[in-house]
Design goal:
This protein has 419 residues and is of the alpha+beta class. The protein is 21% helix and 35% strand. A hairpin with a 2-residue loop joins strand 23 and strand 24. The strands form five sheets. Strands 12, 15, 17, 18, 19, 21, 23 and 24 form an eight-stranded antiparallel sheet that branches. A six-stranded antiparallel sheet has the order 1-2-3-4-5-6, covered by helices on one side. It has a five-stranded antiparallel sheet with strand order 7-8-9-10-11, sandwiched between helices.
Length: 419
């Protein structure tokens, strides 16, 4: 009973004290203070409310192109869509709806990604947006023309600049190329030229190269190395030289005597991966052994048999895609993976000749882009393709020899002047 009375007494005292405190008048607040607090906490809420910005007046940040002041560069941000970007540029809602619909019909929206750049050209007098361009794959670009309210896919205008790089190798070929602000794929191109002559996994201190190459530029930005025109590479005190030339089948590399430097089953752009016990797989997103050699090439590039043999496999596999396997002897077989299609004349059990087309470059199976993965089997085990002496690709033809010699002489003189 005493405990109950004590609790009631404490409750009554608490109510009395709080009522007295609540009746204490607060000092007056100046008008300027009221205005400041109103901007911080509209609606008299305890915490400042998150400001809401109408979608149509969001102004994206940009940088102005120095080469063309009327062009501004933007980057795609989280939450962006083409429709949202069009509204941010003050495109009328009806036009923005129509253009966004056209864009969705013309491109794969998976190519619209955070961090990618888009460019907007403005009129010089009124600074109204005239055109938006957005880079796509395979040297294409999306063009949105606000003056006629239409969307188109166009080839990018590519400018070619010839450059020279002379340097000793520091730690690795790739790092050396990047340290000199050259295109990253220049390292892959150099490896592709001498893959059958130099072991690039064991370069030495003092190794050196002098390369003349083409850089691709678009919209004031460097893209890639297109072709190597000529290169001199010194490895372990031995000088290797090669010269780029189109012998009728595409750009390939030859020594000064016109002998092809490649032993590959196709004309390719560059070698993107060598045989390795551990490599990060681009589609599986994990480290796995890579028991093959990858050649990046255009979709549909013909693939030829490396040697005479018998077809032991010509079918689709979940990982290997469309693939063909050829037995050349009781010990040696070669396999060609990820084809877009197998040639219609190729069937299991058929005989094939060296150089015969067996399929075409694709990206089927576990593949991140058009390429050929070449695998070599010896005594039932996969081996490094570079360990085998396969036939060399075709040398300079008789009709091209005179012109080729002139090309070689011009670069030989250039290399002499650079020493």
């Amino acid at each position: 009973m005493k405990t109950l009375l004590a609790g009631i007494t404490i409750l009554i005292l608490t109510i009395v004290i709080w009522s007295a405190y609540d009746q204490v008048s607060e000092p007056p607040i100046a008008e300027s203070q009221i205005e400041a607090e109103a901007t911080l906490a509209p609606g008299n809420g305890l915490w400042p409310e998150k400001p809401t910005i109408p979608e149509a007046v969001i102004v994206p940040t940009y940088t102005t192109s120095q080469a063309s002041p009327s062009i501004r560069r933007y980057q795609v941000k989280y939450g962006d869509s083409f429709h949202k970007i069009l509204l941010s540029l003050d495109i009328p809602a009806e036009n923005a709806n129509s253009l966004a619909y056209q864009i969705g019909k013309q491109i794969d929206l998976n190519q619209f990604q955070v961090g990618n750049e888009y460019r907007v050209r403005y009129t010089k007098d009124t600074e109204q947006p005239e055109m938006l361009t957005y880079d796509l794959e395979n040297r294409k670009q999306l063009v949105v023309d606000f003056t006629i309210n239409e969307v188109a896919i166009e080839d990018k205008q590519i400018d070619i600049v010839v450059k020279t790089l002379q340097t000793p190798i520091h730690s690795s070929l790739a790092k050396t190329v990047l340290d000199h602000e050259a295109p990253e794929n220049l390292a892959d191109k150099i490896l592709s030229v001498f893959a059958w002559q130099i072991d690039f996994r064991h370069l030495l201190k003092g190794d050196y190269f002098n390369v003349v190459y083409e850089e691709e530029w678009a919209d004031g930005k460097m893209l890639d190395c297109r072709n190597i025109l000529a290169i001199q590479f010194i490895h372990d005190g031995v000088a290797y030289k090669a010269y780029g030339f189109d012998n009728g089948n595409g750009w390939e590399y030859f020594n000064a005597e016109g002998q092809n430097m490649s032993y590959a089953p196709l004309v390719f752009d560059q070698i993107t991966s060598l045989y390795a016990q551990k490599r990060f797989h681009p589609t599986r997103r994990s480290y796995k052994a890579h028991y093959g050699m990858d050649f990046e090439a255009d979709l549909g590039t013909p693939i030829a048999a490396l040697k005479d043999g018998v077809i032991t496999r010509a079918r689709y596999g979940r990982a290997n895609g469309n693939n063909v396997k050829i037995q050349h002897s009781t010990k040696l077989s070669t396999q060609y993976l990820h084809m877009t299609r197998i040639d219609s004349a190729i069937h299991q059990g058929d005989s094939v000749k060296q150089g015969q087309v067996i399929g075409y470059v694709g990206s089927t199976g576990w593949s991140s882009g058009p390429h050929l993965c070449l695998r070599v089997w010896y005594n039932g085990k996969q081996r490094d393709p570079l360990d085998f002496d396969f036939p060399r690709r075709a040398d300079i033809t008789e009709e091209n020899k005179v012109y080729f010699r002139d090309v070689v002489k011009s670069f030989q003189d250039r290399f002499k002047r650079s020493i």
